[in-house]
Write a structure and sequence with these properties.
Blueprint lengths: L10 H13 L5 E5 L6 H13 L12 H7 L6 E4 L9 H9 L12 E5 L7 H12 L5 E7 L7 H4 L3 E4 L5 H12 L3 H10 L4 H9 L1 H16 L5 H11 L6 H21 L11 H10 L2 H19 L4 H14 L1
Length: 329
């Protein structure tokens, strides 16, 4: 089922789409631009379904034959352009799946809709081929381009599409959605919301990811226990970090969220504002034990270590310095 009611945020785009489907005042080509897992395909699906629906009034009726076909991805006039993962979208893909089909009158619906996901993967030849169809499109053709990075599309393409940019969804909207609609715990929901940068799909997959939970546990163990560690414990921990090298940046972000929580509690004494809510007691305790200065030193050192590791300094040495700083502050 693809429907606007399933989409969080993006109110402006949805308002536009409803109006366009209702009045039939359409552009021949749209670019839905937004980060990975931010909801581009959900919007495209709902828009295509609404445009083809014969009973809805700007929104899909959800029960006509067209709507059912749209849900099953078997609608003959909603075409999802596919490509080989390895090669990107080539001119042949565009010729076979778009250019040759565009002139044919729709079989069932009023429109012939082409959905091109990962449009930035079209090479220049493919984009130029598509441009020809976009310059003189048959009246019933609607092309939906989905892209993370609109700059990678040729200017000639960008000047011929109507661009709809997805907006980041707010932290509290995502958190509440994860808790209420997906049964995620408050703390995991809050963390996933912070890490998603406002992309709902990203938050959802983080909340369900075991790797993310594992990383969270590891980070929590460190911040909760490090004050009691001796040098040997620290050396052992540093060796263990080698396994986390590919996700070390997320690990640092978790530490940052933790120490921001400590700082926030110290300043406002309001447990409701914590991200690590389940650990409120521990945070309250650390806020009492640490000075403002000490927490700021830690936060700064996390940033510095992140930079150092990106610049390829000795990984273990950088981690050891960080852990010592955390322990001592
Ligand atoms: Zn319908």
């Amino acid at each position: 089922m693809a429907d606007y009611t399933d989409i969080l945020g993006q109110e402006n785009i949805i308002r536009y789409m409803k109006e366009a489907a209702k009045t039939g005042k359409l552009s021949h080509a749209y670019l839905l631009a937004g980060p990975d897992k931010s909801g581009k395909m959900m919007l495209a699906n709902a828009f295509a379904k609404a445009l083809q629906c014969r009973e809805g009034d700007g929104v899909p009726c959800d029960h006509c034959r067209s709507c059912l076909q749209a849900d099953n991805h078997t609608h003959p006039d909603i075409i999802y352009v596919t490509h080989e993962k390895s090669s990107g979208i080539r001119v042949d893909d565009i010729r076979k799946q778009v250019i040759s089909k565009a002139p044919e009158t729709p079989y069932a619906g009023p429109y012939k809709i082409f959905i091109i996901d990962e449009a930035e993967k079209m090479n220049d030849n493919a984009q130029n081929a598509l441009l020809k169809t976009m310059e003189e499109p048959p009246s019933f053709v609607v092309i939906l381009l989905l892209a993370e990075n609109e700059e990678s599309l040729l200017l000639t393409i960008r000047s011929r599409v109507m661009t709809l940019r997805l907006q980041p969804v707010s932290f509290s909207q995502i958190r509440d959605f994860l808790v209420k609609k997906n049964g995620v715990s408050e703390e995991t929901a809050a963390l996933a919301a912070v890490f998603s940068d406002g992309a709902v799909g990203q938050a959802l997959s983080l909340a369900k990811s075991e790797d993310f939970q594992d990383l969270r546990e590891t980070a929590l163990r460190l911040v909760e226990e490090i004050r009691d560690w001796d040098t040997n414990d620290i050396i052992k921990a540093v060796k263990g970090f080698v396994d986390y090298k590919p996700v070390i940046s997320e690990y640092f972000d978790l530490l940052t969220v933790w120490y921001r929580d400590v700082l926030m509690y110290k300043a406002l004494q309001d447990p409701d504002r914590l991200i690590f809510r389940d650990k409120a007691l521990r945070i309250v305790q650390q806020a009492k034990e640490s000075s403002y200065h000490g927490i700021q030193v830690i936060l700064k050192e996390i940033e510095t270590t992140k930079r150092r590791i990106k610049a390829n300094v000795n990984f273990e040495l950088a981690m050891e310095t960080l852990l010592m700083t955390i322990k001592e502050n």
